[in-house]
């Protein structure tokens, strides 16, 4: 066994011992660390400096209580978190997730992945993530506002435009960012650059809402182009029907694909004539309804209650999972392979389990990991920070073009790095090594901090 392999295994074993029970976090560790071994074999100086051992420890974890009152006057409490994982490349940057499943393990996995994702964008941002186990579903606007105000009362002590800049994620969209921003302003001062994903009328960036979904499709577009192919007439499965899913569907359709599925946590829609995007936006964005409402209004759509999109046995050439972590198990991945999938690109973070990823690799499917393929959201967030510092707003075309270029660079970096390690089709290896290399270099240059 090489020195690098022994070193990496020791770190993995230590984390499995210390963080027992943090299933998602350990899953992310086990996905990244073995691939980084190949890089460390050529960089013994980083082993000597224990860069990886230091990197896997978050710089800071903040946990706090969030008391709030519901519409009936009940006194409620939730847990709030912010993981400030790594600031070697810039201020901590990463979304806030409001979902009942949120816990330390999920946020640590998301923040850990965010370090490499942000590094891949080539922009000056470190990695962080936060959120709460608060469930926004079924809550009134007043309840959401009171929760956001209480959450920010504590979070405001730990963030700032040059320190930590949160954005949205599951359950946190423009409405929540607006309430959080208003609360921050009242507690501290007007600082446009303290949050990203802001509405356009107070210094949000054009194309930020669309950025993750569009960026995902741009990533795949560049991969297809290199293979002398395109989205035209491709049959695409999408999961989720939130921010990422809706704009991935929009851009894939614009490039000529036929998207036939979308989902929420209660079931999925199969619409062989193609998803009606206007109807989907009306149901999900405007009226905040469930997907059953889409099926009720579109006769060609079949609603499969309680089922996963990935259990559908129909032709699928490109799969874009855009809902949540671990939604594609090994078994579901085998179904996708049988359906003829050629490309799986992750809009969500870690939607494929370790078994699913191996099934894709074994079948020769192009697997595009979330840390590369869904980096468009954070990239445009960083562009929003630049606009806020300049006190300027850029036009949609300018932001969209930069997004496309950033996604092309990320794609090329992953592919070239994978090729350097003689694994041209292994974009996961390419993403992990390229993301890690920059952070390791910066950490080493900054000394033992
Ligand atoms: P939204 O809250 O807008 O939408 C989430 C969608 O996924 C909804 O359709 C939701 O259904 C579904 N979903 C959530 N949890 C589950 C679950 N446990 N099982 C099945 N379906 C579920 O979130 P986003 O679109 O912003 O985020 C989706 C994914 O993309 C997440 O993994 C997020 O981390 C990732 N991501 C988001 C970015 C962004 O810019 N927003 C950037 C990069 C990654 P329901 O309505 O029923 O809850």
Automatic annotation (TrEMBL):
GO terms for molecular function: glutamate dehydrogenase (NADP+) activity. This is Glutamate dehydrogenase. It holds the Pfam family ELFV_dehydrog. InterPro entries: Aminoacid_DH-like_N_sf, Glu/Leu/Phe/Val/Trp_DH, Glu/Leu/Phe/Val/Trp_DH_C, Glu/Leu/Phe/Val/Trp_DH_dimer, Glu/Leu/Phe/Val_DH_AS, Glu_DH, Glu_Leu_Phe_Val_DH, NAD(P)-bd_dom_sf. Keywords: Oxidoreductase. Belongs to the Glu/Leu/Phe/Val dehydrogenases family. Residues 205-447 form the Glutamate/phenylalanine/leucine/valine/L-tryptophan dehydrogenase C-terminal domain. PANTHER family: NADP-SPECIFIC GLUTAMATE DEHYDROGENASE 1-RELATED. Homohexamer. It comes from Candidatus Enterococcus courvalinii.
């Amino acid at each position: 066994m090489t020195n690098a392999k022994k070193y990496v295994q020791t770190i993995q074993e230590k984390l499995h011992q210390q963080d027992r029970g943090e299933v998602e976090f350990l899953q992310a560790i086990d996905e990244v660390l073995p691939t980084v071994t190949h890089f460390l074999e050529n960089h013994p100086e980083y082993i000597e400096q224990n860069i990886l051992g230091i990197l896997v420890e978050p710089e800071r974890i903040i946990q706090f209580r969030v008391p709030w009152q519901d519409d009936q006057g009940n006194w409620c409490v939730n847990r709030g978190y912010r993981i400030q994982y790594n600031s070697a490349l810039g201020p901590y940057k990463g979304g806030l997730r409001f979902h009942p499943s949120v816990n330390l393990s999920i946020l640590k996995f998301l923040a850990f992945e965010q370090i490499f994702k942000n590094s891949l964008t080539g922009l000056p941002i470190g990695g962080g993530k936060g959120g709460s186990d608060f469930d926004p579903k079924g809550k009134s606007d007043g309840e959401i506002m009171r929760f956001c105000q209480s959450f920010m009362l504590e979070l405001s002590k730990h963030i700032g435009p040059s320190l930590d800049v949160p954005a949205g994620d599951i359950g946190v969209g423009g409405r929540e960012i607006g309430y959080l921003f208003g609360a921050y302003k009242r507690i501290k001062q007007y600082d446009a650059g303290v949050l990203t994903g802001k509405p356009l009328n107070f210094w949000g960036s054009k194309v930020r809402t669309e950025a993750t979904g569009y960026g995902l499709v741009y990533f795949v577009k560049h991969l297809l182009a290199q293979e002398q192919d395109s989205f035209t007439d491709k049959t695409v499965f999408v999961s989720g029907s939130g921010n990422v899913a809706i704009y991935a569907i929009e851009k894939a359709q614009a490039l000529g694909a036929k998207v036939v599925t979308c989902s929420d946590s209660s079931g999925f829609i199969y619409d062989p004539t193609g998803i009606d995007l206007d109807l989907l936006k009306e149901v999900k964005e405007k009226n905040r309804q469930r997907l059953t409402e889409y099926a009720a209004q579109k006769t060609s759509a079949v609603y499969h209650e309680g089922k996963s999109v990935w259990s559908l046995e129909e032709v699928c050439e490109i799969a874009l999972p855009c809902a949540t972590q671990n939604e594609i198990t090994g078994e579901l991945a085998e179904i996708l392979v049988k359906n003829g999938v050629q490309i799986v690109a992750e809009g969500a973070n870690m939607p494929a389990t370790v078994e699913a990823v191996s099934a894709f690799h074994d079948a020769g499917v192009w697997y595009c990991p979330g840390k590369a393929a869904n980096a468009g959201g954070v990239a445009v967030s960083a562009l929003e920070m630049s606009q806020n510092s300049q006190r300027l707003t850029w036009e949609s075309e300018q932001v969209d073009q930069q997004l496309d270029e950033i996604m092309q660079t990320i794609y090329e970096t992953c592919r070239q790095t994978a090729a350097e390690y003689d694994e041209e089709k292994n974009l996961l290896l390419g993403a992990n090594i390229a993301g890690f290399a920059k952070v390791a270099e910066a950490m080493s240059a900054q000394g033992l901090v």
